[in-house]
Structure formats: C-alpha cells, structure tokens
Amino acid sequence: MFIARLKQSLNIKYFMAGYLCLLVLLASFYFKDLVIFADGILLVALYTGFDLLWTYARDRVWYLPTSAWISGFVLTIGAFPKPPLLVLIVLPLLAVASKQLLHFGKNRHLFNPAAFALAVISLFNPAVSWWAVAGAVLPTIAGLQKLDLGMWLFLFTFFAALIILWKQNRWHITLPFLFSYAFFIGVFSLVNGVVLGRLPNVLFFQIANGAVLFFSTVMVIEPITSTFSTKRQEILYGAMVGLAAVVIIYFSRKFNLVNLDPLVFGLLSGNLIAGLMFLPARKLAKNSSVKKGCSSCVDCSCKEAAPAKISREPSYWFRDVPDQNRFPVLQGDKEFDAVIVGGGIAGVAVAYFLAKNGLSAAVLEAGTIGSGDSSYTTACATRFLDSVDASLKAWESSAEAIAMLKKIVEEENIDCDWQDVDTICFSRETDKKSLNNFLATAQKFQSKDSSIEYLVKDEASASVGVPVSAAYQKKSAEGMFHMRKLLMALAERAIKNGALFFEDSEATNFTFGDQVVVKTKKGGIKAKWLIVATGLPPVKFFPAVSKLLRSAVSYVIDVKFAEKPPFAKAFFWDDQDPYHYFRSVAENEFILGGEDWKTNSSKPDLNPHLQLEKWFKNLVGRQASFKVVNSWQGSLFYTPDTLPLVGPHPKYGKNIIFLTGWAGNGTAQGVFAASMAVSIIQKKNNPYYHLFACDRKLSWPVENNSGNLSVLASVETGALAKEYLENKGKILEVAGQKLAVIKTNGKIKAFSALCPHLGCAVGWNDTENTWDCPCHGSRFESDGSLKNGPAKRGLDPVEIKLENDQIKIV
C-alpha cells in the first residue's frame, strides 16, 4: 500500500528535473570545477527563456512546461564541459526550434529536441561528450570502501534510472533498446575480430556505463517521441533505436565521422523511422484520389461537387490560435476545492471565476483546452436562442450574460476582436401567411423589448444589404468575438489567479460523496465540488442528465468575397427551419452556418456544406462573388425546451454541478452559467436557478424516446469482397460482430462499427465519406480516425482475412 501511494504521489517531471540538476552538480564535484555547474544553470535558463518567449509570441499565453528544465539539463549533460558562450546560446535555441516547429501532426515531436540540438551542433563542433555521466565508473567493493565519487555518481544514476522506469512503466522501451544495442554490438565486435571468449566482457563495459544508462532511461523514453498506440510498437521502437545506434557506429568508423555520436544520431533515426511507420499518415484532401474534373464522388456519378476545403485549419478560429498542448498531463493524486471536467468556454470560465474568488480549481480536458465544440462555433453572444420560447424566457439572463462577458473582456484587457453589433433576423418569403407568422414572432420579441424594430421591404433590404421581404433587428446590443483568443486569454487569467489546467487527461472514473474523486489514466483529483462542463456528460456515470439531451450537427462554411461584401458587421439569421446564420470574421470574409441535422432523424440526402453555399449564392445573387475557403461542422446538445442545464441534479448530490445543453448558444451563456456555478458553491441566491435547473420538468415526446439510439445504417450479412466499391464504406455483420468495412487502394480494411463513445453503431455517410454515429454526433474519417467528438478516439481496427472472397475475422 505504501509503495502504491508513493508511486502515485511522485511527480515524475519534478523528480527528473531535480535528479538532472543534482546529477550535474555531483558531476561538477567529480570534475572539481563548479563553473561547469554554473554553465549548466545558464543553459537551462536560456532554454526556459526561449521556450517561454516562443510560446508567448505564438499564443499570447505565458506558459512554462517542466519539460523545458528537463531538456535544458539533458543538453547540459550531453554537451562537453564548459562549452563556448555561442554554443551555450545556440544549443537551447536549436532545441526549442525543434520542439516548436518539427512535428508529426498535432503535438508530436518529430525528433527528441535535446538530441536534435546536440546532433546539429556536433556537425560544426564536437559537442557531445555525456560528460556528467561518462565519468562514472562501475561500482566495486574497493570503490565503496574508498567512497570514490565516480562510483557514487554511477550508483546515483542507476537508482534514479530504476525510479524513472518504475514510475513511468516504460521498461518495454528501455529493455528492448539495451538488448538490441548489445546484440548488434556483439555482432559488430565478432565481425571485427573480437574473440568469442572476450565478448561478454566487451558487452558488459559497453552496456553497463553511465552514458548508456542515462540515455536509455531519460532520452529514449521521452514521451512526446516514444509513445505509440500499442506496446508492440513501443517495443519495436526501442529495438530500432538500438540497431540504429550500432549502424551509426559502423559508418562513423568506416568513414572516420568522429563527430557522429551513435546514441544521439541513433535516437534521431529511431524517432523518424518509428514515426513514419507507426503514426497515422496525414490526411490528404478528400478528393485527392478523384479523377481530374470529377466531384468528390469517386465514381463521378454525382452531379454536384462539394465545396472546396482549402484551409488546413479545423475552423476559422484555429488560424490565429492553433491547436496544440499548452498544459501538462495530470500526474499523481492532487486535491482542490473544485475539479472541472471539460475545457471549453464553460469549463474555462468556471476556473476563472473560482480562482478569482480564492478557491483552488483544476480543469481536466481529454484533449487540448478549447479543442472541442467551443472552437467550432460562429462566436456570437446573442439574446436570440434556438427557439422563440427559450429566447423570451431567458431574455433577461441573456442580457446579463452578454454584459458580463463584455465586462470581463474590458476589465481583463482581452484582445479577442470584440465588436458590439446589431442582430438582424430576416425573411425572404413572399406569401402572406409566412409573412404574418414572421410578424407575429417579431411582435413577441417587441413585447419583451420595445427597442426591437420591425422593417419591411426596402427598409429591411437596406438593413440586411440584399433584397429581403421583412426583418426585425436589435441595435448594437450583441457581441461578436474570436472564440479561441477569448478562451486562451481567459485560461491565462485563471492561471494567474491560481487555477491549474491539465490536458490529455480524460476523466475515466468518478467516485461520489461529500468528497468527489475524479480519476484519469495517470492521476486523480479529490475535491469538494465537481463541475461537469462537457457537451454531453459521460453517460456511463450521469445517465439521468444525459438522457435529457439530444444531439445535432451544425454545418459551417468560410467564404471570401472578391470585393467588398454587401453586408454590414452584424449577426444575421433567417426564418427557415433549419435556419441559416452568418457573420463577418475578417475583411471580406464571412462564416455561414446552418442546415442543422438532428441525429435522431435520417441523415441529409444532400451535402449540407454544398446546400449552405447554394443558399448563400442565392441570397447575394449577382451583387457579389465569393469562394469557399474552408468548411467544418460542430456538435450541438439540446434539451426539450432548448434551455441549458445549470446546477446540481438530485440523483447525484448537491456538490456536483452540471453546465451543459447549450443548443448552439454556449458562448455568453456558458460564461454566465459558470458564474452561476460559483454562486451555488458560495451559497448565494441567483434569480435564474429555477430557469436552468436540472430537475425542472423536461421530457421528450414518447414516440421519439428511443430516437437517439436508433441505428440508421443498413447492415449486410453476406457481401462478397469483390463487390466493394473503392472508398465506399459498408456496415457488415460477421460472426455476430458489426464491422465498418471499406476498400482503399484495393485493400479492404475493417473497424468495429461501435462508436467508442457509448457503443452505438455508426453508419456510412456517402456524401462526406465519413462514418457517423447517430446517437451523439461523433464522426470518423474513412480510415476510422476521429473527425469530431464527443468520442475521444477513432474506431477500433479489426483484423480480417479473405476466405473464398468472404470476409472473416482473424
């Protein structure tokens, strides 16, 4: 029990930073020159400073990862003692550049940053010496008796290495490296004339030395370059680095390349080769395999092309603030006043308010902060919600929400492109009945707010900018902003007040009671309060809340006009069902959303993005030309009355607060709900508790109760492999198991057809070449990888084989 608790409480990053610092100090004593230690501290400071400034210049967020200290000390240990000042400066700069610029996809180092810097500098200066550990000697009884410092240095390195492997549980990388390195060193030695009887002695001194020990337990297992999807891949990676190191030894001796450190260049080779072999390839454009002149359909049978997807960003908001890790993974057990699950606008805002009120708070995010549906919004703070009744009921609270958000932006001096704008709803219908209904809706809003204007024909067209039949508008009362700039700035302010954020830290288990415990894969948090601020609360643990929610998908296109567009800077929407909405984001650039698909209904027959483009072309007519530069979609979760759920649910206790069910209006409302959560924690009265309470009377129509759990995909039981069309997915039942099967480049691949979110069966979306889950809107690329959640990973691959042209599970 004591050992288990010790393992949980040990923060491996701080341990490694302290171990490396002490190692440099002890080695300086060994070489009897403390200037070496001073140079090391300077190098670490430079690395930390470069990393800090680079991160701030890119994200405008001050964030210092512990890995900066670790990499700085690794550079110190790898570089020769007392390097010139120029090397001291260039080494950390090269390492930081490698860390920030060289990536396999998102958040994945191409090379170990410290090894990359040492390799580059060694091409110009023999800088790799492993001075802090190469001076150690093997422990002997005589050394113990004489208290030989070199012997103690080796023992210190050895026991620290055991602790690191024990804590990180990465034996399966280190041991294959050592065995591979020893085996190929042995082969190399025998080929070069070493007598077989002397081979054990040679291998012992090659393997049991401080440099190899340090390298195999600190650098080879560095998690951002050595973590792959399976343990088998990690074992092969370790063996690959060992082989590469020996190959470098061979070539360096054959061609007299004295500056080629085999460990460093072997590691870089392993990083590159394993990354290419084991990491998923970058996605090509969807129509990269389509013949010239064809649309997005491979067989060229469809008559319309999908809108072009030119931009590489997942949405417009990622263009200025890219998606990447900014915060550490939760390691070990910790305790706070409150733990928040979900790093979207509501979760970040709760952390901000709690920290400002002096409460300790931690945010657990399964991915990266702001990587979920908050970053796929059109980012408008409005009173006009997804239904007229909901808008009227929440009119006052929505006004307070917008004012609160604007006040935070101003007081915190947040640069998020905030604009006070008009909101305008318009109708293009011409029949009398439709216009009367539109007028009746406008009059309902006017009874609530007399400042709302109703406009007809010419006045309405002038206000919108294109010909319409009627419109109603509210002047300069809403707010538009840049969502990811706001999110990151709000997180930064929360951190300054004491909040902590943890990324790649999915909540895997919950224990309820007076003290709530939330577990992740690598740690846990105990807190008095739990705030669940996810799009959909985990159904496994909170079924009473999740059953109140249903999902929809809203589609968005990003368009650029060739000349000045006809629209003012306002937030526009129409009266259709489903409705369309759009706003400006930059000069001559707009984002347009709509064509929402409620996932308990049949999937759209036509490409929703294409329908958006058609609708917009029809709206602007020949007055202006534009092109589509990007497209995306986001998931929405809504309640029967389309108002959110804010507060505790009687089934789970008063210390668990839910913030969910935004129905596409989670911007200002999410921040306002976060403030309500803090009011609940502080036991303050709030006039809107009853409006958003989780235990208010809510129910879905009886005929649709199971709609979200329907399987919308057709299932085949005997399809022949040869009948599959290229890049066309099918759901196939084999031996009682539902498989998602697709042929790509002539090869058939299969995945489990069960969505890893909650186990619903996915279906093939022939319009967008994706696997879609009808239950809660998770979507997957044709190769099974995750496109968007709430699922946190892709479809599970299934090994298959062909027998008599029939698919069989291996």
Describe the overall structure.
The strands form 5 sheets. Strands 3, 4, 5, 6, 11, 12, 13, 14 and 15 form a 9-stranded mixed beta sheet that branches. The model is unreliable at 1-9, 281-309 and 703-719 (pLDDT under 50). The chain starts with a helix and ends with a strand. Helix 3 (34-59) crosses helix 4 (67-78), helix 5 (85-101) crosses helix 6 and helix 10 runs parallel beside helix 14. It is 39% helix and 20% strand. It is α+β, with helices and mostly antiparallel strands and 810 residues long. The protein contains 25 helices and 28 strands. The longest helix is centred in the first third of the chain and has 26 residues, at 34-59.
In short:
The chain is an alpha+beta fold and 810 residues long. The protein is built from 25 helices and 28 strands.
In percent terms, what proportion of residues is strand? 15-25%
Straight-line N-to-C gap: 41 Å
Q: What gross morphology would you assign?
A: elongated
CA radius of gyration is 30 Å
**Given the structure, what is the number of helices?**
25
Structural class per helix/strand content?
Answer: alpha+beta
- Count every beta strand, where a strand is a DSSP E run of 2 or more residues: 28
Which bin fits the share of residues in helices?
Answer: 25-40%
Residue stretches low in confidence (pLDDT < 50, at least 5 long) are 1-9, 281-309, 703-719
* Sheet having the most strands: 9 strands, mixed
Mean pLDDT: 82
